[in-house]
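--- STAGE predict ---
source: upstream dedup step, 1 unique chain passed
mode: sequence only
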Amino acid sequence: MTRSRHVNVSVDLSRVRANAEAIKRQVGPGVEVIAVVKADGYGLGAARVAAAVADVADRFCVFSLNEAVDADLWNLTGKPAMTLSPPQSADPQDYLRHGVRPAVMSAEQAAALRDARCVLCVDTGMQRFACPPGEVEAALRAGGCDEAFTHAARVEAARRLVETVGGRARGLRLHAAGSALLNEAAARLDAVRPGLALYRGAARVSTRLLEVHDSAGPVGYTGFTPATGRHGVVPAGYSNGLRPGPCLVNGRPSRVLEVGMQSAYVECAPTDRAGDEVVLLGDAPSEDAVAAAWGTTPQLVLVHLCAAGERHYSE
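--- STAGE serialize ---
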């Protein structure tokens, strides 16, 4: 995807912080909040997001060591981070110098990264980047692990994590809950890892109408006919991550009707003119509304549309 000079991505860091504070209140004392800033903070900018929530989050979560290094999380926040992906390095010093605890998925990885205070990822059904249940005990011993986690979409996976490691009484810190499980008290365990929940409502993506026309017969590549008899063109297309779906034109609900490489058709009203604002995300077209129209997830909507243009931040 490419960033367009004609698309504006506004990130409200105060909204990100408010979301983090709400999560902290929701889970209550004794439950850590591990803020997920992988994929460059879901497209909002990992370093800026981390700085905004540094005194709210207890730790950070990234996909790989490189992400933590690129965002300079340790020097920026003084808070440790943990990875989710298989280890990029077998040298504990590569992690220690950046304040990162690596996730491990086997006894071999755990033994190699024991000095980096590795964290064991346990497979509870996701079947990805995780230690099989039958090898968990050996991996915990090899790494001297004091923490274990799982990737979970359902509360049953959190319960399976507890069962697989032998219960919470053995002193391991356990976590399973991402954004989808924050409302499940049984899934919170010792920590939660919110990702999408941090970013909801914090990004606004907009552009401007380049042209507006009274539609004369079939329009565009597919020969569509706007219900209003009028259409406009915006300078954003599928090279910028855009797909057909809801938008706002001059604050009025409308639709992106057809998308080309670097431009798209938008349904317009008689009062719309070239230069008028079109909101592709934010205000009324929420992450969930756009995702439903695209047939995908709100996470993908954020990552795609926040990469569509240059980011601008408000505190």
